[in-house]
Amino acid sequence: MRVDAARTGELPKDDEAVVQEHLQRCKSCDNSLHDVAGLARVIKSLAVKPPRSCRDEIDHFDQIDDVWIAFSPHGLRMINRGGSAETFAKQYGKRYGRALERAKLPPALRKQVSDALRGEGVDRPQLDVDESTDLETKVRNTLAKIPKGEVRTYSWVAEQIGNPRAVRAVANSIARNIVPFVVPCHRVVPASGGVGEYAFGSPMKRELLRREGVDVDALDALAREGVRYIGSKTTNVVCFPTCKDARRIREENRVPFHAAAEARQKGFRPCKRCQPFAA
Fold first, then answer.
1. Cα distance between residue 63 and residue 279, in whole Å
2. Residue 48 has pLDDT above 50, yes or no
3. Confidence band, pLDDT 50/70/90 cuts, at residue 25
4. Cα(138)–Cα(140) distance, rounded to whole angstroms?
5. d(CA 216, CA 220)
6. Is the model's pLDDT at 136 over the cut of 70?
7. Beta strands 67-72 and 237-239: pairing type?
8. Disulfide engineering: 268 pairs with which of 30, 61, 191, 238, CB 3.0-4.6 Å?
9. More confident residue, 65 or 2
10. 4 versus 147: which is more confidently predicted?
11. Lowest-confidence range among 21-25, 72-76, 124-128, 177-181?
């Protein structure tokens, strides 16, 4: 104990002089001093910042119509639709282990949520969701890159995150999206075509896509015909049907494809913008 106290400078000067003299004569104690110093360095290196649930920061929530929004000084933390404030607070507590207090949503965050609900989209969502898993983060970042007014498939998202076999895991992660609307999980549809399901119901998904300019009825019609991609006779480029470039193709130049292999076999190459079957 006196050796460690000498290391930390806690001994009186007279006692410290005695210990230092002893260390010069005793190799065993001198080695122990170095061992204790090394252990102290290792312990300090293991120190981590405590999770937010263990700190004194307070999170808040507000409401826009029937949409609940939890936020911190750093960004949006959780968004949900419907239900009561009590239910939302319980969901938040289950996710983050923290309580919520009602407060006014800052104008910048309010604008992001309002823009998303109106179909204007959010280019760079201001989020505070550090507790997410690596998969959730990758999926969320990929969803944020899907342009407003366009849709992609679950398999496309899996390709983009570098794990094409993880379609089911990706779909589950999208279904659990903690910040919907601003992170547009509604822009992901089944590879089989159509609009697909949504956490807040298919009608809500269809309405959100319509607000962004997507012709959901046309998507349904293509799904019934088994059409997954649209190519251009003039450029030999193939796109997702909602791609900005695909919408420019004149009707007489449109070539429907049921599968990527079919398009490749006919000499068409994937659009660099929407990357329909190329990660």
1. 38
2. no
3. confident
4. 5
5. 6
6. yes
7. unpaired
8. 238
9. 65
10. 147
11. 21-25
Give catalytic residues, as residue numbers: 185
| 117 class by beta-carbon count within 10 Å (0-12 exposed, 13-18 middle, 19+ buried) | middle
Instruction: Give the global pTM.
Output: 0.78
- Beta strands (DSSP E) in the chain are 59-64, 67-72, 75-81, 100-102, 152-153, 188-189, 229-232, 237-239, 254-257, 269-270
CATH topology (fold) of 134-221: Arc Repressor Mutant, subunit A (1.10.10)
223 — phi, psi (to 5°)? -60, -40
Mean per-residue pLDDT over the chain, rounded: 87
Asked if 189 and 195 touch (Cβ cutoff 8 Å), the reply is: yes
Q: Which H, E and C letters describe 81-134, residue by residue?
A: ECCCHHHHHHHHHHHHCCCEEECCCCHHHHHHHHHHHHCCCCCCCCECCCCCCH
DSSP 187: G
Strand duo 188-189 + 152-153: pairing: parallel
The Cα–Cα gap between 267 and 110 comes to: 48
Residue 160 has pLDDT above 60, yes or no: yes
Q: Are 173 and 144 in contact (CB under 8 A)?
A: no
DSSP notation for 130-158: TT--HHHHHHHHHHTTSPTT--EEHHHHH
pLDDT of residue 36: 59
Q: What is the pLDDT of residue 51?
A: 54
Classify residue 228 by its DSSP letter: -
Specify the DSSP class assigned to residue 212: T
Domain boundaries, the chain: 2-45, 52-118, 134-221, 227-270
Q: Nearest CA to 179 among 53, 35, 80?
A: 80
Torsion sign, CA atoms 91, 94, 95, 97: positive
